[in-house]
Amino acid sequence: MLKQNAAAELLRVDRYARPLRRVAMLSVHTSPLDQPGTGDAGGMNVYVVELSRQLAAAGIAVDIFTRSTAGDMPPIVELADGIKVRHVVAGPLEGLTKADLPGQLCTFAREVLRTEAFYAPGYYDVLHSHYWLSGQVGALARDRWGVPLVHSMHTMAKVKNTLLAEGDVAEPAARLIGEEQVVEAADLIIASTDDEGHQLMELYGAEPDRIRVISPGVDLDVFTPGDVDQARGRLGIATDALVVMFVGRIQPLKAPDVVIRAAADLAARRPDLRDRLVVPVIGGPSGSGRDTPRDLVALAASLGISDVVRFVAPLTQSELVDYYRAATVVCVPSYNESFGLVAIEAQACGTPVVAARVGGLSTAVRDGVSGVLIDGHDPADYAHVFERLLTDDRLTANLGLGGTLHSQRFGWARTAHSTLAAYREAVAMMRDDAVALAE
């Protein structure tokens, strides 16, 4: 019997030795087709789409499984050549929040497993799950399909709960337990930064040899420096304006209120700058911010700067480019960021970034080279940094150039190359485990 088992395992080794052909991506709670910047759609959506594009360009087919949220969604949408988005019906099509989704994971997992059952064994070579909900499904599919699970956390509840913004709510115990289970089940975990890797080890007990640090990327063909005056002309912004911009989902975690309060502080202290000050706030309500979608409008009014602040609905990447180029500075004051794609996008366009010194932002922004990192979230501290940058053209130009150079380290091609290497490692690790069991 032992010899028969060993032979069976060796057949599995042969399958593992072949080139990667097909990857199953799991993104349960948000679709790659959703517009980033509102609801649950954000940097993770960009990550899944851009990584999939790079994999497809390398000849690897990608199936992205996500939950269907409308009755008119076709079962399969071809996102691009080699990339299919598979809409899985799991629970009511509308009205579910992210907090409701754990109860639908069994149904989602069943439908994912059914898809592979239509094909010959070994149809997928690797599973890559995104966020803990997807990781729960991935852990089950891993064992059923006999393929390795690579997981990206994107955010971690234990980190978020230590850095809660005022008005935000702590992540529930169910998520903490679920994340621990996924960390234990995954063959490899991809961390965006060294800091995230250390948090995985210290807070979740992840084994160091199961962690690979791979930074997310930015589309360096889309996000490039350009003519500031032309960009401002297209947006109706004066060429001599002082533009402080926020881009992101409108929720306490992202701290857009800090930008508005800082702008009000600056306008009060420097009335000579007020008439030229423009503060675009780009994004839509998300998370606990959905409960009070008009709060920022009321805040700007109460601070007397409604004429300064411009609220802009979420934009596509190509539309965002003009805003990044038009900005004097982009502010990312989040309470926590696993990486901070907005910061890299802005820097790739030659715009300095002022950011909170938290999480991945310490990697995304080089303090004093491509922008300024600030400890804490006191609006007065941000206002003083804004003042320095808005009144010192040479400093702003130097940081903008530094940002352009810094961003070149984060192209998606590099991210995909490293991720492919991680996939192959995960396949080899599962092969070695299979051989060890046979012996």
Brief synopsis:
The protein has 439 residues and is α/β, with parallel strands linked by helices. It is built from 17 helices and 14 strands.
Care to describe what's here?
The chain is 45% helix and 15% strand. The protein contains 17 helices and 14 strands. It has helices spanning 2-17, 43-57, 105-117, 131-145, 157-160, 173-185, 194-204, 228-235, 256-269, 271-274, 295-302, 317-326, 341-348, 361-364, 379-391, 393-407, 412-438; strands at 22-26, 61-67, 76-80, 83-88, 126-130, 149-152, 188-191, 211-213, 242-247, 277-282, 309-312, 329-332, 353-356, 371-374. Strands 3-4-2-1-5-6-7-8 form an eight-stranded mixed sheet, sandwiched between helices. Strand 1 (22-26), helix 2 (43-57) and strand 2 (61-67) form a beta-alpha-beta unit. Helix 8 (228-235) packs across helix 12 (317-326). It is globular.
Topology, element by element:
Elements: H1 2-17, E1 22-26, H2 43-57, E2 61-67, E3 76-80, E4 83-88, H3 105-117, E5 126-130, H4 131-145, E6 149-152, H5 157-160, H6 173-185, E7 188-191, H7 194-204, E8 211-213, H8 228-235, E9 242-247, H9 256-269, H10 271-274, E10 277-282, H11 295-302, E11 309-312, H12 317-326, E12 329-332, H13 341-348, E13 353-356, H14 361-364, E14 371-374, H15 379-391, H16 393-407, H17 412-438
Parallel strand pairs: 1-2, 1-5, 2-4, 5-6, 6-7, 7-8, 9-10, 9-12, 10-11, 12-13, 13-14
Antiparallel strand pairs: 3-4
Helix pairs in contact: 1-17, 2-17, 3-4, 4-6, 8-12, 9-15, 13-16
